[in-house]
Amino acid sequence: MALIPCQVLRAAILLSYLSVLCHYKAIEMPAHQTYGGSWKFLTFINLVIQAVFFGICVLTDLSSLLTKGSENQEQERQLKKLISLRDWMMSVLAFPIGIFVVTMFWAIYLYDRELVYPKLLDNFIPPWLNHGMHTTVLPFILIEMRTTYHQYPSRVGGITTVCMFSLCYILWVCWVHHVTGVWVYPLLEHINPGAKIIFFLIVTIILNLYYILGEKLNSYLWGSEKCIMESREKRSKTD
Q1: Structure confidence at residue 238 as a pLDDT band (50, 70, 90)
Q2: Chain centre to alpha carbon of residue 72
Q3: Number of domains in the chain
Q4: Where on the phi/psi map is residue 160: left (φ > 0), alpha (ψ -120 to 50), or beta?
Protein backbone atom coordinates (compact mmCIF):
# COMPACT_ATOMS: atom_id res chain seq x y z
CA MET A 1 0.00 0.00 0.00
CA ALA A 2 1.11 3.57 -0.64
CA LEU A 3 2.11 5.75 2.30
CA ILE A 4 -0.73 8.28 2.13
CA PRO A 5 -3.57 5.68 2.04
CA CYS A 6 -1.98 3.97 5.06
CA GLN A 7 -1.91 7.27 6.91
CA VAL A 8 -5.56 7.94 6.16
CA LEU A 9 -6.48 4.40 7.17
CA ARG A 10 -4.68 4.66 10.51
CA ALA A 11 -6.27 8.03 11.21
CA ALA A 12 -9.74 6.59 10.47
CA ILE A 13 -9.09 3.62 12.77
CA LEU A 14 -7.92 5.96 15.53
CA LEU A 15 -11.08 8.06 15.19
CA SER A 16 -13.24 4.92 15.35
CA TYR A 17 -11.56 3.83 18.60
CA LEU A 18 -11.97 7.29 20.11
CA SER A 19 -15.65 7.23 19.15
CA VAL A 20 -16.16 3.79 20.73
CA LEU A 21 -14.37 4.88 23.92
CA CYS A 22 -16.45 8.07 24.19
CA HIS A 23 -19.74 6.22 23.65
CA TYR A 24 -18.75 3.47 26.09
CA LYS A 25 -17.77 5.93 28.82
CA ALA A 26 -21.03 7.83 28.30
CA ILE A 27 -23.09 4.72 29.14
CA GLU A 28 -24.44 4.79 32.69
CA MET A 29 -23.96 1.15 33.62
CA PRO A 30 -23.98 0.08 37.28
CA ALA A 31 -20.56 -1.56 36.84
CA HIS A 32 -19.04 1.80 35.90
CA GLN A 33 -20.02 3.20 39.28
CA THR A 34 -18.39 0.42 41.32
CA TYR A 35 -14.78 0.03 42.46
CA GLY A 36 -12.36 0.17 39.54
CA GLY A 37 -14.93 1.54 37.11
CA SER A 38 -14.33 0.66 33.46
CA TRP A 39 -10.70 -0.21 34.22
CA LYS A 40 -11.82 -3.54 35.69
CA PHE A 41 -12.53 -4.89 32.22
CA LEU A 42 -9.84 -6.12 29.83
CA THR A 43 -12.04 -5.00 26.93
CA PHE A 44 -11.80 -1.37 28.05
CA ILE A 45 -8.07 -1.64 28.75
CA ASN A 46 -7.62 -3.13 25.28
CA LEU A 47 -9.57 -0.26 23.68
CA VAL A 48 -7.27 2.23 25.41
CA ILE A 49 -4.20 0.27 24.26
CA GLN A 50 -5.48 0.18 20.65
CA ALA A 51 -6.32 3.90 20.69
CA VAL A 52 -2.89 4.81 22.11
CA PHE A 53 -1.16 2.50 19.64
CA PHE A 54 -2.92 3.95 16.59
CA GLY A 55 -2.37 7.43 18.01
CA ILE A 56 1.37 6.69 18.01
CA CYS A 57 1.04 5.32 14.46
CA VAL A 58 -0.60 8.56 13.28
CA LEU A 59 2.02 10.64 15.11
CA THR A 60 4.77 8.58 13.48
CA ASP A 61 3.21 9.07 10.04
CA LEU A 62 3.00 12.84 10.56
CA SER A 63 6.58 13.01 11.82
CA SER A 64 7.74 10.94 8.85
CA LEU A 65 6.07 13.35 6.41
CA LEU A 66 7.45 16.42 8.19
CA THR A 67 11.02 15.08 8.28
CA LYS A 68 10.95 13.69 4.73
CA GLY A 69 13.90 15.16 2.85
CA SER A 70 15.21 16.84 6.00
CA GLU A 71 18.83 16.39 7.06
CA ASN A 72 18.16 17.30 10.70
CA GLN A 73 19.72 14.44 12.68
CA GLU A 74 17.80 15.25 15.87
CA GLN A 75 14.49 14.94 14.03
CA GLU A 76 15.66 11.64 12.59
CA ARG A 77 16.52 10.37 16.08
CA GLN A 78 13.11 11.38 17.41
CA LEU A 79 11.40 9.66 14.48
CA LYS A 80 13.35 6.45 15.14
CA LYS A 81 12.28 6.56 18.80
CA LEU A 82 8.64 6.89 17.73
CA ILE A 83 8.99 3.98 15.31
CA SER A 84 10.60 1.85 18.04
CA LEU A 85 7.76 2.70 20.45
CA ARG A 86 5.17 1.93 17.77
CA ASP A 87 6.76 -1.43 16.98
CA TRP A 88 7.09 -2.34 20.67
CA MET A 89 3.45 -1.55 21.40
CA MET A 90 2.30 -3.52 18.38
CA SER A 91 4.31 -6.61 19.26
CA VAL A 92 3.76 -6.96 23.03
CA LEU A 93 0.42 -5.19 23.62
CA ALA A 94 -1.77 -4.25 20.65
CA PHE A 95 -1.55 -7.53 18.72
CA PRO A 96 -1.59 -10.24 21.45
CA ILE A 97 -4.10 -8.50 23.72
CA GLY A 98 -6.32 -7.40 20.84
CA ILE A 99 -6.49 -10.89 19.33
CA PHE A 100 -6.99 -12.42 22.79
CA VAL A 101 -9.96 -10.17 23.62
CA VAL A 102 -11.73 -10.94 20.34
CA THR A 103 -11.18 -14.71 20.30
CA MET A 104 -11.80 -15.34 24.01
CA PHE A 105 -14.89 -13.12 24.15
CA TRP A 106 -16.64 -14.73 21.19
CA ALA A 107 -15.60 -18.26 22.16
CA ILE A 108 -17.12 -17.89 25.64
CA TYR A 109 -20.06 -15.87 24.28
CA LEU A 110 -21.00 -18.65 21.86
CA TYR A 111 -20.69 -21.25 24.62
CA ASP A 112 -22.68 -19.31 27.24
CA ARG A 113 -22.92 -15.55 26.97
CA GLU A 114 -23.98 -15.20 30.62
CA LEU A 115 -20.43 -16.17 31.63
CA VAL A 116 -18.87 -13.14 29.97
CA TYR A 117 -21.55 -10.78 28.61
CA PRO A 118 -24.90 -11.18 30.41
CA LYS A 119 -28.01 -10.42 28.38
CA LEU A 120 -28.75 -7.57 30.79
CA LEU A 121 -25.97 -5.60 29.07
CA ASP A 122 -28.05 -5.45 25.88
CA ASN A 123 -30.15 -2.82 27.67
CA PHE A 124 -27.07 -0.58 27.97
CA ILE A 125 -24.75 -1.46 25.08
CA PRO A 126 -26.10 -1.35 21.47
CA PRO A 127 -24.93 -4.10 19.07
CA TRP A 128 -22.74 -1.75 17.01
CA LEU A 129 -20.84 -0.71 20.14
CA ASN A 130 -20.42 -4.33 21.22
CA HIS A 131 -18.85 -5.14 17.84
CA GLY A 132 -16.72 -2.01 18.08
CA MET A 133 -15.29 -3.36 21.34
CA HIS A 134 -15.11 -7.08 20.55
CA THR A 135 -15.03 -7.59 16.77
CA THR A 136 -13.46 -4.81 14.69
CA VAL A 137 -10.27 -4.97 16.77
CA LEU A 138 -9.27 -8.10 14.82
CA PRO A 139 -9.47 -6.73 11.24
CA PHE A 140 -7.96 -3.40 12.31
CA ILE A 141 -4.86 -4.98 13.85
CA LEU A 142 -4.47 -7.40 10.92
CA ILE A 143 -4.65 -4.49 8.47
CA GLU A 144 -1.91 -2.74 10.43
CA MET A 145 0.17 -5.92 10.40
CA ARG A 146 -0.21 -6.22 6.62
CA THR A 147 0.47 -2.59 5.72
CA THR A 148 3.50 -1.91 7.94
CA TYR A 149 6.60 -3.85 8.93
CA HIS A 150 7.17 -3.95 12.71
CA GLN A 151 10.49 -4.73 14.34
CA TYR A 152 9.83 -7.28 17.09
CA PRO A 153 11.94 -7.38 20.28
CA SER A 154 13.83 -10.48 21.34
CA ARG A 155 11.61 -13.51 22.02
CA VAL A 156 12.61 -13.54 25.72
CA GLY A 157 12.01 -9.80 26.14
CA GLY A 158 8.65 -9.93 24.38
CA ILE A 159 7.34 -12.93 26.31
CA THR A 160 8.56 -11.44 29.60
CA THR A 161 6.60 -8.25 28.92
CA VAL A 162 3.46 -10.19 27.96
CA CYS A 163 3.74 -12.28 31.16
CA MET A 164 4.17 -9.14 33.26
CA PHE A 165 1.05 -7.59 31.73
CA SER A 166 -0.91 -10.80 32.33
CA LEU A 167 0.27 -11.04 35.94
CA CYS A 168 -0.58 -7.39 36.64
CA TYR A 169 -4.10 -7.77 35.25
CA ILE A 170 -4.71 -11.03 37.12
CA LEU A 171 -3.59 -9.41 40.39
CA TRP A 172 -5.84 -6.44 39.62
CA VAL A 173 -8.85 -8.73 39.06
CA CYS A 174 -8.10 -10.55 42.33
CA TRP A 175 -7.74 -7.25 44.18
CA VAL A 176 -11.10 -6.02 42.87
CA HIS A 177 -12.65 -9.26 44.16
CA HIS A 178 -10.90 -8.78 47.51
CA VAL A 179 -12.33 -5.27 47.86
CA THR A 180 -15.84 -5.85 46.49
CA GLY A 181 -16.42 -9.58 46.98
CA VAL A 182 -17.49 -9.82 43.33
CA TRP A 183 -15.48 -11.22 40.41
CA VAL A 184 -15.15 -8.97 37.39
CA TYR A 185 -16.27 -11.80 35.09
CA PRO A 186 -19.22 -14.08 36.01
CA LEU A 187 -17.22 -17.04 34.71
CA LEU A 188 -14.92 -16.85 37.74
CA GLU A 189 -17.88 -17.23 40.10
CA HIS A 190 -18.47 -20.77 38.85
CA ILE A 191 -15.01 -22.31 39.33
CA ASN A 192 -13.14 -23.25 42.50
CA PRO A 193 -9.82 -21.63 43.61
CA GLY A 194 -7.68 -24.40 42.09
CA ALA A 195 -9.46 -24.12 38.77
CA LYS A 196 -9.01 -20.35 38.86
CA ILE A 197 -5.23 -20.77 39.11
CA ILE A 198 -5.27 -23.14 36.12
CA PHE A 199 -7.54 -20.73 34.22
CA PHE A 200 -5.20 -17.79 34.85
CA LEU A 201 -2.22 -19.91 33.80
CA ILE A 202 -3.97 -20.92 30.57
CA VAL A 203 -4.82 -17.26 29.87
CA THR A 204 -1.15 -16.32 30.24
CA ILE A 205 -0.06 -19.16 27.95
CA ILE A 206 -2.61 -18.13 25.31
CA LEU A 207 -1.38 -14.52 25.42
CA ASN A 208 2.17 -15.74 24.87
CA LEU A 209 1.05 -17.93 21.97
CA TYR A 210 -0.62 -14.90 20.38
CA TYR A 211 2.62 -12.95 20.83
CA ILE A 212 4.52 -15.69 18.98
CA LEU A 213 1.77 -15.81 16.34
CA GLY A 214 2.20 -12.08 15.74
CA GLU A 215 5.96 -12.48 15.49
CA LYS A 216 5.63 -15.33 12.98
CA LEU A 217 2.95 -13.52 10.96
CA ASN A 218 5.04 -10.36 10.79
CA SER A 219 8.04 -12.38 9.63
CA TYR A 220 5.95 -14.28 7.07
CA LEU A 221 4.40 -11.12 5.60
CA TRP A 222 7.54 -9.01 5.55
CA GLY A 223 10.51 -11.39 5.70
CA SER A 224 11.23 -11.59 1.96
CA GLU A 225 10.44 -7.90 1.31
CA LYS A 226 12.69 -6.85 4.20
CA CYS A 227 15.57 -8.90 2.80
CA ILE A 228 15.09 -7.26 -0.61
CA MET A 229 15.09 -3.76 0.93
CA GLU A 230 18.20 -4.51 3.00
CA SER A 231 20.06 -5.88 -0.04
CA ARG A 232 19.13 -2.75 -2.02
CA GLU A 233 20.42 -0.53 0.78
CA LYS A 234 23.73 -2.43 0.91
CA ARG A 235 24.05 -2.23 -2.89
CA SER A 236 23.40 1.54 -2.90
CA LYS A 237 26.04 2.08 -0.19
CA THR A 238 28.53 -0.01 -2.17
CA ASP A 239 27.82 1.98 -5.33
Answers
A1: very low
A2: 33
A3: 1
A4: alpha
Other C-beta atoms within 10 Å of 200: how many?
18
Q: Is residue 239 situated within a structural domain?
A: no
The yes-or-no verdict on residue 112 having pLDDT over 80 is yes
Output the pTM of the full model. 0.89
Name the average pLDDT for the chain: 89
- Tell which wins on pLDDT, 238 or 158: 158
Structure-derived torsion over alpha carbons of residues 101, 107, 110, 114, reported in degrees to the nearest 10: -60
| Residue 171 contacts residue 56 (beta carbons within 8 Å) | no
Cβ-in-10-Å burial (0-12, 13-18, 19+) of 134 comes to: buried
Is residue 119 in some structural domain? yes
Q: Can you give the residue range of the structural domain that contains 129?
A: 3-233
Is there a domain that residue 80 lies in?
Answer: yes
Q: What is the rounded distance in angstroms from the CA atom of residue 173 to the CA atom of residue 132?
A: 23
238: in domain: no
